[in-house]
Amino acid sequence: MRCDAILPHATAHEPAPRPCPRPCRAAHPLLPVAAAALLLASSYLALAYLPAAAPLTALIGSGGGDGHNGSSCAGFYRGGSSGWRAVSASVEEFGAVGDGVTSNTAAFRRAVAALEAMAGGGGARLEVPPGRWVTGSFNLTSRFTLFLHHGAFILGSQDPEEWPLIAPLPSYGRGRERLGPRHISLIHGEGLDDVVITGNNGTIDGQGRIWWDLWWNRTLNHTRGHLIELMNSTNIMISSITLRNSPFWTVHPVYCRNVVIRNLTVLAPLNAPNTDGIDPDSSSEVCIEDCYIESGDDLVAVKSGWDQYGISVGKPSSNIIIQRVSGTTPTCSGVGFGSEMSGGISNVVVRDLHIWNSAQAVRIKSDVGRGGYITNITIENVRMEKVKFAKQKFVFEILKCKMQFAKQKFQSNQDPKSGMP
Ligand SMILES: *[C@@H]1O[C@H](CO)[C@@H](O)[C@H](O)[C@H]1NC(C)=O
Ligand SMILES: *[C@@H]1O[C@H](CO)[C@@H](O)[C@H](O)[C@H]1NC(C)=O
Ligand SMILES: *[C@@H]1O[C@H](CO)[C@@H](O)[C@H](O)[C@H]1NC(C)=O
Ligand SMILES: *[C@@H]1O[C@H](CO)[C@@H](O)[C@H](O)[C@H]1NC(C)=O
Ligand SMILES: *[C@@H]1O[C@H](CO)[C@@H](O)[C@H](O)[C@H]1NC(C)=O
Ligand SMILES: *[C@@H]1O[C@H](CO)[C@@H](O)[C@H](O)[C@H]1NC(C)=O
Ligand SMILES: *[C@@H]1O[C@H](CO)[C@@H](O)[C@H](O)[C@H]1NC(C)=O
Ligand SMILES: *[C@@H]1O[C@H](CO)[C@@H](O)[C@H](O)[C@H]1NC(C)=O
Q1: Which residues line ligand 8 at a C-beta cut-off of 6 Å?
Q2: At the topology level of CATH, where does 87-275 sit?
Q3: Coiled-coil intervals in this record (predicted)?
């Protein structure tokens, strides 16, 4: 199926969007040259239009079989049991109440732990039936399927205490927005293998407005949580559901391998701050396909850590396919590379991207001193409608266009409340 038939919805009465940093174009005729020279001096960077490297193409099947006529990279998910699970139960059996009010955090946590024990290694499936299931953060486990039926809504708790703090990622060294620890994601997993989050278009809604308000009114104490974050995990499949209103980036696989994210609808108000759609970060063998995304930031952003922390962890993002993604983001891009790319990014194919009413289709971002590299990026068949910077095939930039304002840049690095690019 194609997701691009879905109409984008406009959200009225929202505060003005905080724009993504703009490309340096047109500021001064020599600026792009200066920018390129500076970046080359500060980091090794190579861009090449090359055919996809062997490990990528070898993993793509040749069409058919799964509902569309293009090729699929879903083979990146290699769950040992192909999704088969020994036990299955509904979250209701663990005391959850789908009334849109009751907090089900304990029920979800109990359900995952009990099913894991019952499965005895054979894998478990947790069903979320139709209803409005409010919950705080809970962790998944290995060989596990979270299945959302049509009409099921997992709703993010409105109590920040239900999103407890966890340590910053080693490759960021601090919360991305605030110093120190960060709020955990609504659905979280670490050190797992074979995790599936799927359904018949059930919805996970982060109800992120309280977090955007904290951001807008500058009362955020700790970095916001993601809707879904999987760390240091392998064989992940996230498919056929709707993700809405993430407090921060929506799907964040970090230090992961063999990740498939497909057939998703990802929605957030077009001005919701930093609600990136899908952000593979220091991860490899990642397939993102057939997704419709509209949000307040990049639809897809490939990352690999931040400044000295990202450099010292040194985990690149590589072997990534992004295909048949469509959507809109008024001030940002369809596919972004960086700006956090200190661990390096290589071997990425972006194709059949359809993007409208947006700032850019594909954007490559770095910053002074960020280190890393971006290499072997292939971009094919990009359809752009009402895209601001469409004349350039892609926009290549150094963040914030502030090389000429070194002092200002320095201050913004020092002030943890100044926000993030
Ligand atoms: C880029 O691709 C070329 C040709 O496929 C390959 O030789 C090289 O190792 C790749 N570089 C990186 C950094 O992956
Ligand atoms: C199916 O493939 C044909 C031929 O390659 C192409 O013209 C058409 O756009 C494709 N349809 C979809 C829905 O991708
Ligand atoms: C979830 O996992 C994280 C580690 O990734 C841990 O810090 C946290 O305590 C776990 N939460 C629960 C409720 O087990
Ligand atoms: C990653 O997860 C594996 C288990 O899958 C564990 O053995 C390893 O210690 C973890 N690595 C880190 C850096 O946490
Ligand atoms: C995509 O997801 C929808 C539900 O959201 C489902 O009906 C459809 O079969 C899925 N298509 C594929 C190709 O998985
Ligand atoms: C899934 O739900 C979303 C949100 O309601 C909707 O926009 C989309 O069209 C649905 N997808 C399918 C395949 O029905
Ligand atoms: C900031 O937003 C939060 C969440 O909506 C709200 O509780 C708080 O009162 C707001 N603070 C200010 C100063 O507006
Ligand atoms: C942020 O910290 C201040 C000072 O400790 C506290 O008064 C406030 O309630 C905190 N805000 C949130 C949303 O936790």
Answers
A1: 160, 214, 219, 221
A2: Pectate Lyase C-like (2.160.20)
A3: none
